[in-house]
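Morning - magnesium ion inputs below, output right after.
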Amino acid sequence: MIEHPLLVAEGLSKNYGPRIGCRDVSLEVHPGEVLAVVGESGSGKSTLLGLLSTELAPSAGRVSYRLRDGRLADLAGLGAAEKRLLMRTDWGFVRQNPADGLRMAVSAGGNVGERLMAVGWRHYGNIRDEAIDWLAKVEIDADRVDDDPRAFSGGMRQRLQIARNLVTRPRLVFMDEPTGGLDVSVQARLLDLIRGLVAELGLAVVIVTHDLAVARLLSHRMVVMRHGRVIETGITDQVLDDPREPYTQLLVSSVLAA
Amino acid sequence: MNAQAAGGMPEITYNFAYLDEQTKRMIRRAILKAIAVPGYQVPFAAREMPMPYGWGTGGVQVTAAVLGPDDVLKVIDQGADDTTNAVAIRGFFEKTARVATTTSTQAATLIQTRHRVPETPLRENQILVYQVPIPEPLRFLEPRETETRQLHALAEYGLMHVKLYEDIARHGHIATTYAYPVEVAGRYVMDPSPIPKFDNPKLDDCPALQLFGAGREKRIYAIPPHTRVRSLDFEDHPFRVQRFAQSCALCAASGVYLDEVILDDKGGRMFVCSDTDYCNGRQEAGHRGEMAGEGA
Ligand SMILES: Nc1ncnc2c1ncn2[C@@H]1O[C@H](COP(=O)(O)OP(=O)(O)OP(=O)(O)O)[C@@H](O)[C@H]1O
Ligand SMILES: [Mg+2]
């Protein structure tokens, strides 16, 4: 891609005391690109996502992001107010456990409307209309707008989480195992939905998954992690069809065997 | 330090207004900071008071810190001067500070209140001290203290509107009638304590100093005189105070906050001023409601 990268990580490391979370990771994410982070349990995927999204502070290295004015800014140098504004307008975060990404006691409309209110929307009717529009985009009926997520199925909760994040039209969304814990048929529907929205909105996504089928379906590029390091990176189809590293070969074959 | 033996006879004498001078200075510093940053919750080292927390120990400590020997104190609870709570707090300061007390809003220089703002407009050189159970307006949706502090610091108040949004979604209108959140001086959002939202407009541009004390939560906040206080709302659901169809059954006042009083078990009831001093004043001035005179 010729376009300037949206997110740049350089030499990212994270130690949890003596334990290594993630070590010396450098990568770029381009506008509109879906990057999958794969690897077995404990390989450092969530840690890397936490570092990229600045929810975790790195032990070493840095993350830069291209602001809307074109400037590539070191995120550690942004003020708290600027960073939070970025997080609730330009970014999204879809979590594996919907309870971590939703307000479970707040209606679906309120969940979707929160970001709008946070950026200054003060007309109830407009907020509600926009929320209903977004519920439709994630295939939730308008008549569920006043129900809270406790009354929703797992798949609906994830779709609500997606609507809540996308309502401010972010440019970059982080997803940590968004289909984890869902039935296979529910998973397939959610993946189709994510794929459609990503294409429609031109979103850049960093998605963590241990499911190579998810990576295959959604991502353009992928990185393979092991023991906190990125051991292989490339175009998704190439990595999956022709893995270089013995470990990746093992990973791919074990999936095929499964 | 509070108790001294005098003249052989063990006699307990308290420092003026119970708290020792050092504690009062500490509380005054918190109050000054609160006045300097209107609506901001200032932490303070709340002391144990000889009464349970539900009785307004935060308000009592603020009152103790600002009370002077020449003050005239009024204490109200839900608008009334004669409830157990109001009588106990008034008695506490009569005993520990020997200050004059009153039930008259006009005559008082310092008013400690729970759940109401007097109907009689306050004036300069008066202080209104509110008892506050839960000072954090964002607590309802965000229980994490570290997070609410951030939200205040960055003036991120979208969450407060989520609460109002939920009200409208559930009830068709903003159903919050007590502790209705306000924005102070265009900056901090604060909980005005559980006063009816009917009283919210009285906080705006008030000539008196308003102080808020939360004992259990150890917070003090303030609205200096003549400060802009705006109740949060939506453009298409503007803030409105409650309106009462009736007037007071005793003094015929309208446009005041009324309490419903059940008269018998056959559905008999009447509406009377919640502010008893205001109601008595009107009756003494000759105003008569439909039920007035019968009991008197
Ligand atoms: N808060 C923490 N404290 C200590 N160690 C941690 C912490 N979080 C993660 N680790 C360790 O860091 C390593 C990477 O963990 P991480 O959660 O990033 O892996 P992951 O690839 O997301 O795994 P999974 O697929 O199970 O979610 C693991 O060894 C883990 O035990
Ligand atoms: Mg993980």
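Note: Chain B touches chain A through 18 residues (CB under 8 Å).

O.
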